[in-house]
Structure formats: C-alpha cells, structure tokens
Amino acid sequence: MDFSISQFEYRQRPPVTIPSPEFLKVLSEEGIRKMVSDHYDLLTKSTISYLFPRNEEALNKAKQNSADFFIQICGGPTYYLENRGKPMLAKRHAVGSITPEARVVWLQCYIQVLSKLGLPEEVLQSFWNYLNVFSFWMVNSKENFDMRFVKE
Ligand code: HEM
Questions:
Q1: How far apart are CA 122 and CA 120, in angstroms?
Q2: Domain ranges of the chain
C-alpha cells in the first residue's frame, strides 16, 4: 500500500479520479460513517483542531455531511445532494484557512484510520489516490498558522 502524499504548486487543481465504487461495496455505508467519524475524532485532537467544530452537536453534523459526501462519491445514494445540494467543496472549504501543512495533517489522520480497515489493497489505494489529489483543491492559504486561533 502506498500512502504517499503528493506535493503540488499552490493554487493548482490537479485532475481527480473518483474512488472505485468497490470501496463502498466492501466497506458498506455504515463502515464509511465509522471511518469518517474516526477521522474527525483524530482531527479534533490534532494540530488543526481549531478548524473543526468543538460542540458535539455541530461535530456530529459535520460527520454526517462528510459521510454523506463520501457515500455519494463512491456511487451510493445521493444523500449529500439531498441534504446539502451541489458539493462545490473548494468553495465550502473557504470557511477556514487551509494551508498545505494543514492538508498534510488531515491526510495523516486519514492514514491512521485507513490502515486499520483491513480492506483489499487495490480498493484502498483507489480511495487514497482520490484523497491525496482532491485534498489539494481545498488548500486556500499559504499562511502557516491562522493567528485568529492563537490562545492569549
Ligand atoms: C485539505 C484537507 C482538508 C481540510 C483541512 C478540511 C477541513 C474541513 C473543514 C474545516 C470543514 C468545515 C467543518 C466541517 O463541516 O467539518 C470541512 C467540511 C467538509 N469537508 Fe473537508 N477538509 C479537507 C479536505 C477534504 C476533502 C479532500 C474532502 C472530500 C474528498 C472533504 C470533504 C468535506 C465535506 C463533504 C465537508 C462538509 C461540507 C458541507 O456540506 O458543509 N474535505 N472540511
């Protein structure tokens, strides 16, 4: 399994290949929801926790939206479209400052979760390749740290 993290030029939007529908087939909707939940739980303990909701209700909503999206992109029911509309994810990520370093942390949290799933390598690789490339679309800042979140 190759969990390498590619580097791109700032503002680049490299072409994305959507994950294999096998990912949803082998993991199931429930499995995707657990994967997303575990990822958020790691994010809230990571160095980029300031980007994510602290309050439990908001965090659960965030988990639901993201899981809805992943189920949809893997060829499952269009929950995301029904609940949130068109994805336009780069635009939706403009809510916070996402630096190239924040992307790496986000991806590293995914490596921890994905490596415990016990999925066939080919299926997992296809999902990883998608995350690795598409995550760069969300990078919207070169600033190393968002000073608004520095505690006094
Ligand atoms: C570059 C690393 C990324 C960071 C730091 C990041 C961070 C965030 C943040 C702060 C939010 C808003 C809070 C929340 O709802 O969780 C969010 C929402 C979301 N993210 Fe990401 N994200 C990243 C990459 C991705 C990728 C690669 C995808 C999809 C493949 C994705 C899918 C979503 C979805 C579906 C939402 C919910 C949007 C909505 O309907 O409100 N994110 N992300």
A1: 6
A2: 28-140
Q: Which CATH number does the domain 28-140 belong to among 3.30.1240.10, 1.10.490.10, 3.90.550.10, 3.30.110.30?
A: 1.10.490.10
Predicted TM-score (pTM) of this structure: 0.94
Query: What would the pLDDT profile of 104-123 be if each residue is shown by its tens digit?
Result: 999 999 999 999 999 999 99
Cα–Cα distance measured from residue 61 to residue 44, given in angstroms and rounded to the nearest whole number: 14
For residue 138, the CA-to-ligand 1 centroid distance in Å is 8
Q: How many angstroms separate the alpha carbon of residue 51 from the centre of ligand 1?
A: 10
> For ligand 1, is residue 136 a contact (CB within 6 Å)?
no
User: Angle formed by the axes of helices 22-43 and 121-134, to 10°?
Assistant: 50
